[in-house]
Amino acid sequence: AQSVTQPDIHITVSEGASLELRCNYSYGATPYLFWYVQSPGQGLQLLLKYFSGDTLVQGIKGFEAEFKRSQSSFNLRKPSVHWSDAAEYFCAVGGGSQGNLIFGKGTKLSVKP
Amino acid sequence: EAGVVQSPRYKIIEKKQPVAFWCNPISGHNTLYWYRQNLGQGPELLIRYENEEAVDDSQLPKDRFSAERLKGVDSTLKIQPAELGDSAVYLCASSLDRWIGGATEAFFGQGTRLTVV
Fold this sequence. Notes:
Order of helices and strands of chain A: EEEEEEEEEEEE
Strand content of chain A: over 45%
Number of strands of chain A: 12
Oligomer: heterodimer
Distance between the termini of chain A: 41 Å
Largest interface: A-B, 28 and 27 residues
Largest sheet of chain A: 6 strands, mixed
Number of helices of chain B: 0
Helix content of chain B: under 10%
Radius of gyration of chain A: 14 Å
């Protein structure tokens, strides 16, 4: 069955420090992978997506993610975190005829001054 | 261009009462999704529409939940009667095309936070 695992429930980083949020997936076919961000009281905003091609994808707000098929991973990175990045981040997998997004449980990011 | 619009943003009801949520997708988007997000969890699909047809409602608790998408545009999700465990955020999303090949993305509304007391 398809699934997404985000091993870290909560991460705290200092402002200006680098960030990596982990995501592992289980999917029987070629996965289409997404990272969404959710600020308090808001809906989900797409940060970036991977469909095919270059395995390093760039997104909005300075985020990037790398697809590693051998590790079934799609980790999200940012070289320098800003206080406004504090939010919850969701990795999702989808694609094919199923047509649905399957989300991980999310990682809450806190940023300390 | 307006995004996905949901109303109301917040709703508090007593258990056993009915409640309805409304969603207006992005203009021209044929596919509409309803997700439920429990506290501390990721969203989980309840139902997916292709135009006016419900093509995946396998996760919709049909004894108390119902949904409709008349004319293939706006959609309404209803719960009757509500239970304490239905407290969650209900998210609506839309995408331009159905997911054959998967090369499309879903846009989400701000959600309706339901509290059942």
